[in-house]
Design a protein that fits this description.
Mean pLDDT: 97
Structural class: alpha/beta
Order of helices and strands: EHEEHEHEHEEEHE
Radius of gyration: 16 Å
CATH superfamily: NAD(P)-binding Rossmann-like Domain
Strand order of the largest sheet: 3-2-1-4-5-6-9
Distance between the termini: 41 Å
Bound molecules: NADP nicotinamide-adenine-dinucleotide phosphate
Largest sheet: 7 strands, parallel
CATH architecture: 3-Layer(aba) Sandwich
Oligomer: single chain
Number of strands: 9
Length: 203
């Protein structure tokens, strides 16, 4: 398969690329490095990548710099917009482009994070967007053009392999979920890479 990876040089993205390149052709995108340079929150830049890279089977979005951690009373509109523009709008937009440019039977895998369900006093400009992306994926997957699959990987904090524990995962573990999303048949699925943390009861 031919896979376009946004955030390919990141902590998670590097491992995704490593695991994919054994079987697939990977094209990397970053705002400063990669086969293509594009800010994923800049629509014109994203469109230009899709016009250049043809015959795509899958897209992975694992872009960093999307989270701001501050106490609630220090979060202003700009901090909130930061997450909204990156985690939500930029990822939503990539799904629209996937519908237009991906081959039949293609897939798109987005990224959220466990702060959707395990908030802390500094996560209010981040966790709610993770939750929104998970819900977007679950609700919109059935309405995509036939054959196109959409999933999201929700990582817990990523640590070195020797520090892996409940609620702490390695980049290798997280990357394996992106590979499952691409190579499997799932759609509308939230792959929770939460290191054995349970899904808390809501409501
Ligand atoms: N790491 C964790 O513990 C953790 C936990 C939960 C969720 N997550 C989520 O997982 C995702 C990836 O996290 P990470 O820790 O792997 O991030 P990271 O290491 O900071 O990843 C940085 C990657 O994103 C690219 N990038 C940054 N800004 C970009 C932009 N505006 N446009 C295009 N590419 C851009 C960078 O390339 P350039 O330098 O070339 O721009 C680089 O490839 C994020 O959504 C994060 O919220 C991470």
């Amino acid at each position: 398969m031919k896979v376009l990876v946004f955030g390919a040089s990141g902590k998670i993205g590097r491992q995704v690329v490593k695991q994919l390149t054994t079987k697939h052709e990977v094209i990397s995108v970053g705002s400063r490095s990669g086969d293509h340079i594009a800010d994923y929150s800049d629509e014109a830049a994203v469109q230009s990548v899709f016009e250049k890279v043809t015959n795509l089977d899958a897209i992975v979005v694992a872009v960093g710099g999307d989270s701001i951690f501050k106490p609630l009373n220090e979060i202003g509109d700009n901090e909130f917009r930061h997450g909204a523009e990156r985690k939500l709008v930029a990822q939503f937009r990539l799904v629209r482009y996937a519908e237009k440019y991906l081959n039949e039977g293609g897939s798109i895998t987005l990224t959220s994070g466990f702060l959707s369900h395990y908030p802390n006093p500094y996560s209010m400009a981040t966790g709610p967007f993770n939750a929104a992306i998970d819900t977007f994926v679950q609700q919109s997957a059935p309405w995509l053009k036939p054959g196109l699959r959409l999933n999201v990987v929700s990582p817990a904090p990523v640590v070195e392999a020797e520090r892996v524990a409940k609620g702490l995962v390695s980049a290798e573990q997280v990357a394996a979920y992106y590979v499952d999303s691409i190579e499997g048949q799932a759609s509308g699925k939230v792959f929770r890479a939460w290191g054995d943390l349970p899904l808390p009861a809501t409501d």
